[in-house]
Amino acid sequence: MEMKRLLHFVHIAALLLLTMSPLEAAGGKKEKRKRRRENNVHHDPPAVNSTSGFLESLLKRSNYDRGQPPMLDKSTRVELGIYINSFYSISEQTMDFSVNIYLRQNWTDPRLAFDPQEGGRDMIKLEDGYWDRLWVPDVFFRNEKKANYHDVTIPNRLMRLYSNGQIWYVTKISATLSCPMDLKKYPLDVQHCPMMLESFGYTMDVLYFVWMKNAVDMDDHVSLPQYKLQGHQLEDCSQNYTAGAFPCLKVTFNLKRDIGYYMIQVYVPTALIVILSWVAFWISIDSSPARVSLGLLTVLTMTTQSASARASLPRVSYIKALDVWMSVCLVFVFASLLEYAAVNVFSRREIPKPSKASSLMEKFKGPSDKSLRSLTEVENGVNGRKQPPQYIRDPFGREKARMVDKLSRKLFPTTFILFCLIYWPVYIFIDM
Predict the structure, then answer these.
(1) For the chain, is the Cβ count within 10 Å smaller at the N or the C terminus?
(2) If you average pLDDT over residues 13-27, what whole number do you get?
(3) What is the rounded CA–CA span in Å between residue 297 and residue 56?
């Protein structure tokens, strides 16, 4: 009986051992894998092949200091260029213009040169965290009024590092720049608006600027509402200040104003008003209300048109081409009104009515002075009282008035055409 119990216990123990052995084996494998992963993580070297790791090692190896320029023994060459996205908001009132550009900069920093095999590539694109850790030229717009970077949806900046230490840096900028305008020929003018790029803190002993190849490029779809871009000039604008000589580059844009808008809004309407004032020369001399109303209407319309055309312009001390045109047109309109005043005077001119005594004197020549005196006294009054002289219309006055009207019909158009023949060539072809 005891033997049976013993065998039964052994049988149960064997079953338990057979059941637990696979579980222990699985648990052991899992533990081994866990230990292997921990050992791998613990013993792997730093990831120098990654971009950030490689840059960190490069900066530490060269003991990089972003406060120092790339070369201390000679001046650093910095190439500049711009790509124009848009040209907008050119204002004569504030004398400025606004542009949206990509500012491109290129220089070489020997401290950042690396072996392409070590870095695994010939070019490295630097991310946001490294833009402020490297030395960059302190370029600013000398004639800037306001400017800003673009950060939507990400900071619009690009920096690339090449194996020879060359750095390519591009930033997107919107800027409003001053443009001193000469409005003597306005609106037949050509404006020359500069963009000046200068170093703020480094003199030419530390760095100097040069224009890169194809320095100024422009989007094919850029258009200006009132101007036509007639090319540009590249210049060096380096200047000596009290603190030293600072490098500077300047690009000047030649902007020719489009005359189409002003022809429709200014020149054609004012010319028609002047022509309308000449209609009075064909209206009857006796139609005073019509001629006076037409003259006053054209004068007031011309005054309003002149004020409207000058409203968007700054108050400058010199005479503009638009001022000459408006003033001459106003003179023509006002002269047509004065012409009717002269015609009206001629047509209403009166002369003294000849008396009967004068008629008798003409008829009988040679009477004595006493008889003539008595006849005159009888004619002029009764009982010694003299009457005021009487007047009649000058029969030749209306004829003179008609002659003035006929002369004005030819003189006014001829003079205006002569003025136009002088005005347009002078302001279009002659450089002021």
Answers:
(1) N
(2) 51
(3) 81
